Amino acid sequence: MVKPRETLSEIEICEHGGGRRDGCGGGRDGGSRRRDKSRKIIDFSVNLNPYGPPDFVFDAVREAAAEISEYPDSDCCALRARISGREGCREEEILVGAGASELIRLVALSFVKKRAVLPRHTYGEYEVAARLVGKEGGAGVKIERVEMPGLQVKPEQVVEKMKNGDVVFLCNPNNPTGQYLSEDEVRQVLEEAERVDALLVLDEAYRDFVEKAFSQRPTPTQTGNLVVLRSLTKSFAVPGLRLGYAISSAENIKMMRKAQAPWSVSVFAQRVGQAVVGSAGEEFLNQTRRKIERSKKRIEEAFAGSIQTDANFYAFDVGNASAREVKRRLLRCGILVRDCASFGLPSHIRFSVRRDEENEELLHFLLEKEFSEKREVLSPLHRNAHHIAVSEQVRETNTLSPELH
Ligand SMILES: Cc1ncc(COP(=O)(O)O)c(C=O)c1O
Predict the structure, then answer these.
(1) Which of 21, 97, 139, 342 might form a disulfide with 102, Cβ 3.0–4.6 angstroms?
(2) C-alpha angle with apex 119: 116 to 122, nearest 5 degrees?
(3) From the alpha carbon of 103, which atom of ligand 1 is closest?
């Protein structure tokens, strides 16, 4: 029997949020649970736009259906033309992928050689992607973690770690902590990347949810040392579609394109991309940001300012309780959150900002006396009658089937 590459036995499949509808439960995402069609859950474990997808996405899907008997355009020409208008860069500086996930793998495959530098608590797919390219029988890729004092990414500490040839993954805003690095902070890291000749991969999957985000476009001098990743799946709530893009120098993009499987971006994804990248999409995102900012204000006021985020999700410290246990208890009440153990934060849960009436539902539990005083035990038994009525109403409008323990 031919054995698989040794590198694979050392790699764990990365955990993600979300409950799977098929309930087959491979443990890869949050949904490895028994299926129970009779109940609905509110899913705070994925950081999607709670107001999407917009109607024009469905029109694009219907149009694309007429094209399924042909292969998609592997170069995504029409979509890249639109993205270049949005981003102000040339079409050859853009690579469209099946979500930012595919692009993370392509960056690693194309550029990681000896070392990848990552913040201590960040999105798990960077490490998986970097380790996958490890050498057989020799030294694998070294993963250098940058400490995060107070759960903050400090650019000066990233800079301190960087060496020639490194690939540095920074998630901005960071998943799961929600910290958004300023333009100056990113510039500091980028300047060091140029100085030592390293590659900075800036994953901006949640940028569309940040109020007053800056636009990080590689300038001609920076392009060789910077790859920017964008995801359209969160912004427009279409994770089932798989769509994202990378921006870098034409030369870098050409190399990543070589590593990409042909036709990885379906006709549906390309059509939807063309529909959302443009004025209708920008208007939808502007409205979303306004609503999310309002909701965040309410959430932060409810916690008397003790929690904060720059993104559309919160990392929430459950104190002495185990996040896994809190998640389990919330799930019994029809609320799914992400426990952050796989991020190296076993006493944190992550929850996204959803519509106000849904947020109220979660707040009700997190603010319970028993829980907020000790942050030890969540007791679902303290729900009052009014709240139960709201819950039922909210769940009526939700379609995700529950996958309860
Ligand atoms: C930081 C980050 N980058 C990338 C992704 C993947 O995005 P996509 O759905 O576009 O593949 C995720 C998904 O959770 C993420 O959290």
Answers:
(1) 97
(2) 105
(3) 11
In this predicted structure, what is the pLDDT of residue 38? 55
Hey, which of 15, 29, 49, 101 would you mutate to test ligand 1's pocket, going by the most ligand atoms within 8 Å of its Cβ? 101
How long is the chain? 405
- pLDDT at residue number 9: 82
Identify the burial level of 30 via C-beta atoms within 10 angstroms of its C-beta, where 0-12 means exposed, 13-18 middle and 19 or more buried.
Answer: buried
CA–CA separation, 103 and 203 (whole Å)? 10
Q: How far is the CA of 230 from the centre of ligand 1 (A)?
A: 9
Which atom belonging to ligand 1 lies closest to the Cα atom of 101?
11
As averages over each run of 10 residues, the pLDDT of the chain (405 residues) reads 85 80 47 50 96 96 96 97 94 97 98 96 97 78 96 98 98 98 95 96 97 75 85 96 96 97 97 97 98 97 94 94 90 95 95 97 83 47 37 43 30
Give the residue extent of every domain in the chain.
36-50+281-371, 63-278
List residues near ligand 1 (CB under 6 A): 99-101, 123, 171, 175, 203, 205, 231, 233, 239, 244
CA pair distance 99, 239, nearest whole angstrom: 8
Q: What is the DSSP pairing of strand 115-119 with strand 348-352?
A: unpaired
36-50+281-371 and 63-278: identical CATH topology: no
Write b or e for each residue in 58-69: b if 16 or more Cβ atoms lie within 10 A of its Cβ, otherwise e.
eebbeebeeeee
Overall fold of domain 36-50+281-371: Aspartate Aminotransferase, domain 1 (3.90.1150)
CATH class of 63-278: alpha beta
**283-290: long-range contacts, CB 8 A cutoff, minimum separation 24:** 284/51, 284/52, 284/54, 284/236, 285/208, 285/235, 287/51, 288/49, 288/51, 288/52, 288/208, 288/209, 288/235, 289/208, 289/209, 289/210, 289/211
Q: What is the pLDDT of residue 17?
A: 82
Q: 205 CA to middle of ligand 1, Å?
A: 6
Backbone phi, then psi, for 367, in 5-degree steps? -95, 0
